[in-house]
Amino acid sequence: MEQSIEKIAEILMEQGINSNIQYSITAYSLNTKLSFKFENATDLLALLKQTDATSNPDKALIEKAIIDAGLNPDQFFYVNFFKEKVTEL
């Protein structure tokens, strides 16, 4: 990983992203301060377990999401985190 899980967790918390984390998994970075490279699904799972206390992420579901994105869960990929969008009426 280019950055440690602890550093990524710190950045997410600084940005107000600390529960119900939303993200997209891609083969590329969006070049934002909330885009991070992960070496494999295990690294992403470790981050999600550390930062999202409201859920218990399942490795099989994370691997499925990576495969659905057309990627290999055992190879590097990018995760682009974003804040939850609130719809205004």
Strand order of the largest sheet: 1-3-2
Number of DSSP E strands: 3
Strand content: 15-25%
Q: Measured on Cα atoms, how large is the radius of gyration? A: 13 Å
Separation of the first and last Cα atoms: 41 Å
Explained architecture:
The protein has 89 residues and is α+β, with helices and mostly antiparallel strands. Helix content is 35%, strand content 17%. The chain has helices spanning 5-14, 41-51, 59-68; strands spanning 22-26, 35-38, 77-82. A three-stranded antiparallel β-sheet has the order 1-3-2. Helix 1 crosses helix 2 (41-51) and helix 2 (41-51) packs across helix 3. The longest helix has 11 residues, at 41-51.
Tag the structure with descriptive keywords.
single chain; 89 residues; alpha+beta; 3-stranded antiparallel beta sheet; 3 helices; 35% helix; 17% strand
Gist of the model:
Helices cover 35% and strands 17% of the residues. The chain has helices at residues 5-14, 41-51, 59-68; strands at residues 22-26, 35-38, 77-82.
List the helices and strands and how they pair.
Blueprint: H1 5-14, E1 22-26, E2 35-38, H2 41-51, H3 59-68, E3 77-82
Antiparallel strand pairs: 1-3, 2-3
